[in-house]
Predict the structure.
Amino acid sequence: MTELDAVKAALKTQAVETPSWAYGNSGTRFKVFAQQGVPRDPREKLADAAKVHEFTGAAPTVALHIPWDTVDDYAALAKYAEELGLGLGTINSNTFQDDAYKLGSVCHPDAAVRRKALDHLFACVDVMDATGSKDLKVWLADGTNYPGQDDIRERQDRLAEALSAVYDRLGDDQRLLLEYKLFEPAFYSTDVPDWGTAYAHCLKLGDKAQVVVDTGHHAPGTNIEFIVATLLREGKLGAFDFNSRFYADDDLMAGAADPFQLFRIMYEVVRGGGLTPDIAFMLDQCHNIEAKIPAIIRSVMNVQEATAKALLVDREALARAQRSGDVLDANAVLMDAYNTDVRPLLAEVREESGLDPDPMAAYRRSGWAERIVAERVGGEQAGWGA
Amino acid sequence: MTELDAVKAALKTQAVETPSWAYGNSGTRFKVFAQQGVPRDPREKLADAAKVHEFTGAAPTVALHIPWDTVDDYAALAKYAEELGLGLGTINSNTFQDDAYKLGSVCHPDAAVRRKALDHLFACVDVMDATGSKDLKVWLADGTNYPGQDDIRERQDRLAEALSAVYDRLGDDQRLLLEYKLFEPAFYSTDVPDWGTAYAHCLKLGDKAQVVVDTGHHAPGTNIEFIVATLLREGKLGAFDFNSRFYADDDLMAGAADPFQLFRIMYEVVRGGGLTPDIAFMLDQCHNIEAKIPAIIRSVMNVQEATAKALLVDREALARAQRSGDVLDANAVLMDAYNTDVRPLLAEVREESGLDPDPMAAYRRSGWAERIVAERVGGEQAGWGA
Amino acid sequence: MTELDAVKAALKTQAVETPSWAYGNSGTRFKVFAQQGVPRDPREKLADAAKVHEFTGAAPTVALHIPWDTVDDYAALAKYAEELGLGLGTINSNTFQDDAYKLGSVCHPDAAVRRKALDHLFACVDVMDATGSKDLKVWLADGTNYPGQDDIRERQDRLAEALSAVYDRLGDDQRLLLEYKLFEPAFYSTDVPDWGTAYAHCLKLGDKAQVVVDTGHHAPGTNIEFIVATLLREGKLGAFDFNSRFYADDDLMAGAADPFQLFRIMYEVVRGGGLTPDIAFMLDQCHNIEAKIPAIIRSVMNVQEATAKALLVDREALARAQRSGDVLDANAVLMDAYNTDVRPLLAEVREESGLDPDPMAAYRRSGWAERIVAERVGGEQAGWGA
Amino acid sequence: MTELDAVKAALKTQAVETPSWAYGNSGTRFKVFAQQGVPRDPREKLADAAKVHEFTGAAPTVALHIPWDTVDDYAALAKYAEELGLGLGTINSNTFQDDAYKLGSVCHPDAAVRRKALDHLFACVDVMDATGSKDLKVWLADGTNYPGQDDIRERQDRLAEALSAVYDRLGDDQRLLLEYKLFEPAFYSTDVPDWGTAYAHCLKLGDKAQVVVDTGHHAPGTNIEFIVATLLREGKLGAFDFNSRFYADDDLMAGAADPFQLFRIMYEVVRGGGLTPDIAFMLDQCHNIEAKIPAIIRSVMNVQEATAKALLVDREALARAQRSGDVLDANAVLMDAYNTDVRPLLAEVREESGLDPDPMAAYRRSGWAERIVAERVGGEQAGWGA
């Protein structure tokens, strides 16, 4: 196999998980602008996700969010997904939208609230059992808004206790993926604010606990690819939440704000042997003002382009330049790959996979956008509301 | 008059405007936690604001937000405020919650939307005419989320045109206060992102246009007191929106996150002759998890304490140390005031004004919190929703 | 002329000014790593700059820094530059390396120090008269490290007075370019910290005063292209200092840290009609660990590539998408240009201009690097030292 | 013992280590302003440190930096310190000022450089053996300036190898304290950029490896007290480097930029049982423009004031409010301690310890400042230079 063939082969098997909630409405604290044709239930979300996969060939699974995607029969939902050519992916818990969670969930000072949150996490594992999902992704909105509001350290004790209980509940093939976030919705302290905290907890939990890197959840100036490289080295990188940001957790389309950063991240993934099914590559974005399905298609394509560039890095030449201490040469090798226009290569990959070389154009021609606007009338549009 | 008497006199006349919307529910994009006893209409907001003024003696006016505070008869509302011992203050426009404003308001690419937004701003001036409010505060959520989404420069042209039209509509005693904000809800570009942009527009508009400094609307590391000093020097500081933040526009209680910063800001206000009725000292906060009325009382007290410390700075000693180039001495003079516990002084000021020395305790004893929970049953709680 | 021809024509005339000091040693506060072959006087710096221009065809002028480039006979230096195929560009003042400037220069509390700094600025204009340089670039390290250290507002008064005196000293064809910087070397307040401050001063000074945008001098999250667009709209953009940064004022090679940002900046330049000789496009970088001449060649090429992409934006299609409010389409038009590999186009442009298509390779083949190492033995290497 | 007595007792035994290099000259990359009377050798630094301890009673040990404090006879230096009433504290290594370290030290791509750096670290342990110092503090300037410059992950392997070798060299009572830093002097990647990285390495090394928190080494928005609480909970907090900053690693006097933050940090220290000799409380600051000895006295006092406030927090009342979920009450309990003017209490503590209640005034009266200016003439002033 030539090197280019190897690159193509890697691109052909790349899988990006799309989140069910990205197909629904979202917004800022100021306003949620509703869009026409938005899904009204989990099946309609899956139908939209199927279109993303149909045209990109790279989005075979869909992450669910409980309770936003609560259904009576998860096995039936998994079956429906299968009929659409999809699989159900990560189960995402929600311990932030119940009125009880005003001051936290598993870190709440009140044991009753902690118990309620824990029960929800257990229920999510039940959903996993029903859907066959292997990953439980836990993002906790827990934190405090004011100094003194609660005891930072005790909250860590409560956190450890809850995570341990959830971990014990996991089956042999299930994982707990712990996501960190610098701030928001908590504005003073967050209980899992950085990769160090997530890593420390996962380490104690065991091999089935791993860290989620959401690319929008860091302080300004954070070198995210360093974290990726470090977690891969430690065997503790479980998943990505891709999105992009200029300021805070802006949740823009992956690759839209800093395509060079996405490339650098994907380079560390490739270099660290992380381009495998063991790591879940997920989008987690909000399409507040742009059309949702094409925005997701664009995001998948952006991830593909960053990956293609990362795969094209001449690693031998790079290692040579690095070892020789030639700063400019080493940088040039990396930039040569980044500066390459990989769109023709990806078009080729798609054609070889029986896909239209231009997923966006194909989606537009498909009439799906018009069809959902026409058909999805009445009912309540899906959104972040519980 | 001794110096301490002068300090007391200044503190006795200090006025902090509270915003009607701070009495209603607010939250993050993830969840709005409803509180019991929250006002259901503008009159109930005023009733709550009257309590803040009753116990602090320092919150005599209330800012309105249109359309959240839309009423049929503004004159009647103003009359009601007067009966409560309050005045109506700044009128705040809202050009971000209508579906039309998805891509902006006065900067929108579509002239029809711009016209709609402009009409709203005119309507706000009508409200001012009816209430006797002298200030129109314009914060625009306008901006873009993606590079290329719209033409940054053309949006400035549209902005200038709209502001000019509003300016022309003002009466002789009315002002246009232009507020800037780094980001959110727009995540790539914001049309009035910094004081420089607001200043440049106000300069062209004329003397009745001035800049609003919202303490939470800056990039990390921004020296806000420098901006305050500069705008005062230019005669272009019109108003404050006080709140505090650790990360982004967190809208925590003023003085809660960085009390030293609030002191430094108030020092520049005092030093620049800004402690006058010409500058509107307003709170603009979200009490997402804490009780609203006491949080506002606390915020008013925090502003008072920062002001008291600023007034206590020995400016002659400071100037002497500054002129001599003694860095440590100059810093020590400032810190001496900051490190002073001014709570006894403020208790004295309150007692001399016939108030309880401890506004929080007095409010708690008043039974108002229990009363509104009992009485305000049914109806729809006020919030940010249009 | 076809559109591509127009793009090529623009690229052929593009001029990037290189700074004399980038050819000398620089470092961080921790260490300056000396390199072999570094120039020992202004003529050797010019000789190196001539090589950059020889191979890129795009670096025809060199900025001087006084006193680092002090010579007895500036006319002779200009003549020497001419012989090398170069022109002398901006004169950069230095009011931060004399012991007197510990607490500031033109903003210093002591009038004698202010006078000394002003005399230096006058002397720089004298140099301009001798060299024929038309631009005086003023970056002031003035500021304070501790709250209270000096009076923020009085410092503005002193600043205004000094700038006015310098402005009055300018000839008809000379400009004062005022540079702002968020922080460093001052850590609490900086006297010209942002574009708003620089703009406000320039506005009062008059038409010959304009603002310099150093791409590394902003707070995290600042949208620099917005500032560029705004200053162009106001007719107040005088020059750029290009470099790149991940954290603070890192002074890395232009385009190295965020090539997408450089593209967006150049797009606003092109769109705002700024790709003209009226705006000085300068590099201002530190090559602490990489070889200096090739680093500067790379930087010039990075600016060229960003410019080429900016010129390739299909502005009609973009305007159409923007006007229609199609967020994804508009973004896609911009990204299409960014994702284009413009290196072949630039190779063509170079060949059509009689240059080697690969400036880096040509420089390496030239033997210059080896020659200066061999020849420049003894003497004191140029650096930031006064 | 009453509670106040316990507070006083804690304050009387509090020890802040001062760094030898803070007595020497320092500056920014732009300029080092020399001061008169600055020490010229390690003994003179100790003499200055003795003055800080004489007047504060709280600075009994001095950290050394090798090679800046290299002497022929460390035992003699320790003896001299003892005569001055001081002890020698932490030994700080320097693997950044030799020309070999341009691309790193223990993470350098070249094994010979790594060996050289390792030998230096071993030599530092030798110094510890000679001085009786128990802590080796390792701050590595290692990192890269450009993407691709070196392999991020391999550098971690090299780092781990070196740390392990140093760890093995430690005696039973010696510790390796690993310091992290976000950026500078490396501008793209830093090999120990955050607490998570330092923690992960220390965890693998063993019990004698602990993390150093330098308060100026974090990204904007980082909640440092959370890190302190977490490391204490993990038993991995070894030491502090106190200083303060508005922007980056500004190295201003501790408590000067954000006294509230210093209080919150000290509160977590107190709450987490960290106010013990097991944790080294060190200053690490640069007095670029202010007089050095009084600046250090002021910093020690600032740490004392923050500690006093932290000790005054009514922890029972706080826990009660926290458990009840009363956000405002809990915050108020903390703020009550912060708003207290603890200067009278500290004056009392000093008097009870036989010290002058006002260390700054006492130092000024002592004539030491004048004496060192008069006596320390000729020779080379100490500074950061190798």
About this structure: Chain B is about 45% helix and 10% strand. The CA atoms of residues 350 and 356 of chain B lie 6 Å apart. The radius of gyration of chain B is 21 Å.
